[in-house]
Amino acid sequence: MATRHHGTIAITGSRSVLGRLLMDRLATTDASLAVIDIERPPQKCRYYPLNLVEPNTDLELERIFREIRCKTVIHLAYLSRPVFDVAYSHELQSIGTLNMLHAARGAGVKHILTVSPSGVYGARGKNPNFLTEDHQVKPNKDFEYIRDRAEADQDVVAFMKKHPDIAVTLLRMAPMVGPLSDNLTTRMLAAPAVVTLLGYDPLLQFLHEDDAVDALLRALEYRRSGIFNIAPDGVVPVTTALYRAGVVGIPVAHPVAYSTFHTLWVTRLNDIPPQQLDFLRYQCSLDNSRAKGELTFRPRFTSQGALLEHLGKKRRAA
Predict the structure, then answer these.
(1) Domains: count for the chain
(2) In 125-160, which positions are buried (b, 16+ CB within 10 angstroms) versus exposed (e)?
(3) What range does the domain containing 299 cover?
(4) pLDDT, tens digit (0-9, with 9 covering 90-100), for 121-144
């Protein structure tokens, strides 16, 4: 993929799963890359050490963007799963994204590409089978991690509407699996046993990390403003996914499960917040029609295929 017309591409979050895979792919092209992160990536590129939670980050980012004559920013500096330090999570994900947007605007950046999890839509009983990009972003307000991601998501959408002269691409991604992925979904699949909710068996999507990075490259190539759901074709019931992974499902009445997970979370005896149980209770699956049509995104793996590929590689590695 020729990338010269993108000018210098600045990447934040290069050590994330998506960042690492994207850097590997772009390193084989003619792309001029600059990484802004707390760690230097292994690939050869210009590197600017910067922690996005520090004061005056927006000013320093704008200075760097101007210095490198940045035309494209790929912002991937997000946490892959909840952490106990909710203040840090908010500063990095919500405030960090705002700082990036302000800096990009001030430096004359022409294209901003970033991502968001499907969880920003919220898992609810009234959700349709597949959520389109027009569905309201409405996460559980008590789920700090997803709330921060939703704030960042909505700030990007507001920026997109306010600045039509800048191409802003927002990819909302289904839960990701693959050899590098470490998130609540992959941890569930690696556990010996998992609490399920009695009477509920929602359908899940599994996005292979190779398809996720392919979507990023498509979005980089097309430079199209808009929101795009990035998801595989097909779904897998929770019980089937656990069976395939060899995980024992332990059905528990949902009031008991939520109460127990809340206690374990606040006492830091479990790193899964109780609100994550919503996604084992209600469906939150994405319609990928817009990405297929406007970005020519073609996932190589179905949900079942991505799940089996993930499980097969994990078993071979063990």
Answers:
(1) 1
(2) eebeebbebebebebbeebbbbbbbbbbbbbbbebb
(3) 4-317
(4) 999 999 999 999 999 999 987 899
